[in-house]
Amino acid sequence: MVVGGTSSANSLAMGAVAKRSRVPFISLNAAARELTGKACNRFTFRAPASVPVYARAMAPELLAVGKKWYFLIASFTFGDDVLATYGDIVKAAGGTIVGTDRVPVETTDISSYILKVRQAKPDLLVSGLANVGPILKQLKEFGMTGQIGVAGPAVSDTDLWSVPREALTGIYGKTWYFNDPNNSPEDKAFVEAYRKANERPPTDRVWAGWFMTRFLMAAIEQAKSVESNKLVEALESLRFKDGNQDVGFREWDHQLIRRPVVGMAQANATDKWDTLKVKSQAVADAAELGRLFGSKEDVGCTMEPL
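User: That's the sequence. What structure does it adopt?
Assistant: Structure tokens below.
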């Protein structure tokens, strides 16, 4: 079994190798829809939500900010998905896209793009970059923090920790957050133990590795085997206890069905690590999660037999 992947692009490549090699692969950090959509396969599983899931979860908050949106997207699969998905949402609500810029993946100086954003005067700047940090830093440098809304899906805690506290702003979709009041008792105990050992809370990526390793070990116990085909079947059928919910991979596309988190950035929080305030909401029920994660027709996965 392989557990990992650092982006949508390399997770797609790893998924193709997993299929060819018949080695189960759990992606921890890929949000582009293709991984469990048209590029799905029987040996690839995805732990975080996809871009369309974040978009549906975040839409009410984002549309409340305004309906003139500007996109800064990275020139790779994830950025393209953000533009297509969030663009459809604002247009369906009667809004407009007032600008779009594609940014080379490793770019850190985005001042020229921020000047174009300032000129366009959008209500909301949607990030499809690999790291939202440069946007927040350079909005602060141009004195624009708080003047334009910022949003982005699949944002990491390390992105937000990398910027000055006074530059924090925006609405973000995440897999998990250490200070989410909806976290399970097991998650809260994990956060406490991790903080004691590391003098900081775990990031969403750290949690994903911890949670999915526990999930994998439970699958091995259920299969009573580490043989690839038996592990795939166990991962497809396992329902793992997550607080008062049972969490598992959807059999027909291998997407983990678990509620996403929507958080509002907190500038100058007392705890320097506590960058977000999680939107107050009850844990989504099965019907709501089904709507967020989409139907077979929405997703477009055709899974091959083992």
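The chain has two domains: 2-50+203-259, 52-180+260-281.
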